[in-house]
Amino acid sequence: MSSAAQIAKLIDEFPSDAALEAYVSQYHDLVGREDINTYVRNLAINVKLKGSKFRGLAWKIYLRVLSPARETWKSDITTSRAEYRQISLKFGNKDSSSFNGDPLGTSDICPDDSWRMKFRDEELKSLIRQDVDRTIPEVAFFQSTKIRNLMCDLLFLYAKVDPKIGYKQGMHEILAPIIFTLHCDAAATQHLSSVGRLPQDLLLISNGSELAADCYIMFSKVMRKCRKWYIDPEPEARDATSELEYYIRDVYHNHLKSVDIELYRHLERHHILPQVYAVRWLRLLFGREFPMQDLLCVWDFLFATNLEMVSSFFVAMLVGQRVLLLNDDAGNILSTLMRYPSPDDVANVIEQTKTIEKSRHGLNFAKTKKNIDQKTSQVINKISDIYSKIDKGIKDIVESDAKPVVERSKFDFLLKKYEEQRQMSLFCAARLDAAVQQLSSLGSAVDGDTMVSVATVKQVRDFLCGSLKWKDMQKHEGAIHPATIQWLNKQINADDNIEEAEEA
Amino acid sequence: MSYDYLFKIVLVGDCGVGKTQIRNRYTLDEFNPQSKSTIGVEFAFKTVNIDGNEVKGQIWDTSGEERYRAITSAYYRGSVGAVLVYDVTKPKTFEALENWASQLRQYADENIVVCVVGNKIDLPTREVSTAEAERFARGNGFFYMETSALDGTGVESAFRQVMKKIFEIVDSRQQARKKTVRAGSIGKTRSIKLTDADDVAEPSKFSSCCKQM
């Protein structure tokens, strides 16, 4: 099969029957599958969407603008476009005739503050315009007045809908590649619809006259994930740290450190503050660090992984330049990171990201396993403690039979103690249950040894919460590992010895 | 290229007043009407000769919108000069200088050399007068220059003046120290801080870029 890029070339150069055929067959290849989601996702993860005329469609699937079931696409897209129209009607451009009152009035005189609102809106618009006019100047597409106006309208709309963020510099460069991609999709569809028949749902989804709506929807989906990087800390709180800074610190001090300690130490030694370069990396989703065509591949990957690999990608960018960085001094390190060298093949950075992500899961898994092992031994300690106390309590009660009146208070005390221990067992059972859930969610990543330890933990949990009885466990030989019983007996004896020694 | 001193100079001011253009004009001698808005921070270098010394300027500019403390403190840290920029055709950007000056006082070294720059003087629609801006600068102990990043007027000389003033401070301090400190105890090539104690203490953040470039 021809590659996406070859087909794209064909479509652009010869809007012929052959191009139409290739286009339609590629569409069917994409969507005529049982599991569209996995297939389309794999395309992005393996950097196979370069130059594709269906990139916008793929993004719509990744970002859940379209559900994984093709049958519902029609209703998905119609609903979201209707939502956009409502928002647009509510906040979009209004002409001044709809405003009441005196434009020069203050709030005391003016019955409604629509004029003041209008002035504020005008200010917001000119702020947006200032950035939009400076959007990706090296790409001619963004010089078009029509596209610029569209960008201004959509950013203004978003600012009104999400007033906590409003408009912040950088959002324009999140929107720009989205418009570019959806526009390319729609242009190809329109182009080929003049040659022959196209599938109905494709015509509906990739429709140039709905560009504004579709871009807005997709932009808000991306912003849902990225907006945290645009939030200012509260102005009153002097030492407030923004979420962005927390995020950057976490990536740098935890993630990078665990992946490449040598590089981390080198950067630390040179006092390279990650926020100096990383604010731009994150706010623009790496938009300025790669040429446009590479960036789109990066976004394919980030969107397809639900923007959950941003941190690993960030680390991959650092590790990818480690040779250069390790041989640089402070000034050059910053220069490298602030003018990130164009990679020979962006697929390498993505490959690196996948490797980092895998090792990260490995690390997390090892950590979880260690935690559970620790908890298990803690719980076993507690069990032995409980039993030794109960035994001792019974012994005391039996012995105190001779003088019941005197020992009444001791009996109450022991009952109380027993109840306390029971509560503690239940609590431990609940904690273990949570751990079991966590381990179980790792699914196929779990190895044989771990399965055994999960089974042990489950057994201990059941025992603690009472659904498995101690006597049942003793009845079945092998229900408890002989080593555990031996260990338990030793613990109980040791406790007895200590207490006897204390009493003596 | 080797150099004797490294001065970090920051550009501050509202969005769109031309900070990046001024930096580009100064460090690259170019004006690109289509430059992108600055997100976060950017910097560039330029080396000049002052009284026979090679002085390397590390010129930083930041987004005018940048209010994140994360960046603010990193941005001002170690800076010895600041250029406060406003747009002479937009009074609002001039009024905002008050805020920028107070941020400067909060985060920067108290001895920082500050130059107020009125940019875009090539435009016919000027609205802030020279006298007004000079009054503001004098009142705050800053000096005032006017520039056009578009045609280059004043840019070079504004930076030269800032660097010269920093150099004078550093030089006079060194002269004074020579009497008390034995020669050779301080390497000549290093980044500069204006607070006296720091001068000999721990090398600052960018000290290692002083070695060679």
UniProtKB/TrEMBL annotation, chain A:
The keyword Repeat does not apply. It comes from the Eukaryota. Gene3D superfamilies: putative rabgap domain of human tbc1 domain family member 14 like domains, Ypt/Rab-GAP domain of gyp1p, domain 3. InterPro entries: Rab-GAP-TBC_dom, Rab-GAP_TBC_sf. It holds the Pfam family RabGAP-TBC. PANTHER family: TBC1 DOMAIN FAMILY MEMBER 5, TBC1 DOMAIN FAMILY MEMBER GTPASE-ACTIVATING PROTEIN. This is Oidioi.mRNA.OKI2018_I69.PAR.g11553.t1.cds. It comes from Oikopleura dioica.
Automatic annotation (TrEMBL), chain B:
Signal peptide: none annotated. Keywords: GTP-binding, Nucleotide-binding. It comes from the Eukaryota. Pfam families: Ras. InterPro entries: P-loop_NTPase (IPR027417), Rab_GTPases_membrane_traffic (IPR050209), Small_GTP-bd (IPR005225), Small_GTPase (IPR001806). The keyword Cell inner membrane does not apply. PROSITE patterns: RAB, RAS. Belongs to the small GTPase superfamily. Rab family. This is Oidioi.mRNA.OKI2018_I69.XSR.g16236.t1.cds. It comes from Oikopleura dioica (Tunicate).
